[in-house]
Give the backbone structure.
Amino acid sequence: MMLVYCAPFTAVILRIFSIHYSRKATSFFFGSWLALWPFLFEKINKTKVVFSGEAVPARERVLLIANHRTEVDWMYLWDLALRKGRLGYIKYVLKSSLMKLPVFGWAFHILDFISVERKWEVDKSTMCRMLSTFTDPQDPMWLAVFPEGTDFTEQKCMRSQKYAAENGLPILKNVLLPKTRGFHACFEALRSSLDAVYDVTICYKHRCPSLMDNVFGVDPSEVHIHVRRIPLNEIPTSEDETAAWLMKTFQLKDHLLSDFRAEGHFPRQGTEGDLPMWKCLDPKFFNFSLNLVVYLVVY
């Protein structure tokens, strides 16, 4: 209930005086609520979250790109963000229909998530307007982008491969062709205020979970998250060169996922440890968290 009472003040009234402090306060309250979800996944559902690749520094301001295996990928980025002190500050570029979800949709609006229709002619002005408010380096932020634009299915993969063959693009087996304009818009607008770009590759042991599988602990048994930290000077600035760089990055993801299927894991595992209980249950919100856990378990 504290979130319901505090959100109008932090997200509306405080914003009149300072966007910076409004976002800080909103992120504090929602970060405390969001911490419940990694707690649910890792402690109650006993999902094993395995990190690999690079151990990235805490509290960086980053643009994050990830593949999109299923509808719950974005939730497992919370597990990484919580470990890096950025849970309340993570924002997503997501399709507009998700902004209408009960409870979550309300939170997405308050947290300044960027809603898109996945049509560049429609989305360009919205993205540029929202991104212009994210350029202050004093505002902590992780902006997560899924360049494929939708979750992976075999049918979508076949369409993507057909388009690639017709246009002389790489034929990818485990990811879809990335949409480059949105990523370039984000990178161009935020580059001067970022510390790095994180390239995240997500894969699930056995099968990909649905949202309900995730909430009720049916699946997944293991989530593997591979992280690569990319210095800004390694990413070109022109739109064409950025598009080529992103395409190459998704080719690397495709190879990485093929290796995962063959070997059952990503290289260089163990970059992050188990989730400490104290990070999930902030003492200030212990009663709130406990009540919600009981509700989820019982009902």
In short: The domain at 2-298 is CATH 3.40.1130 (Glycerol-3-phosphate (1)-acyltransferase).
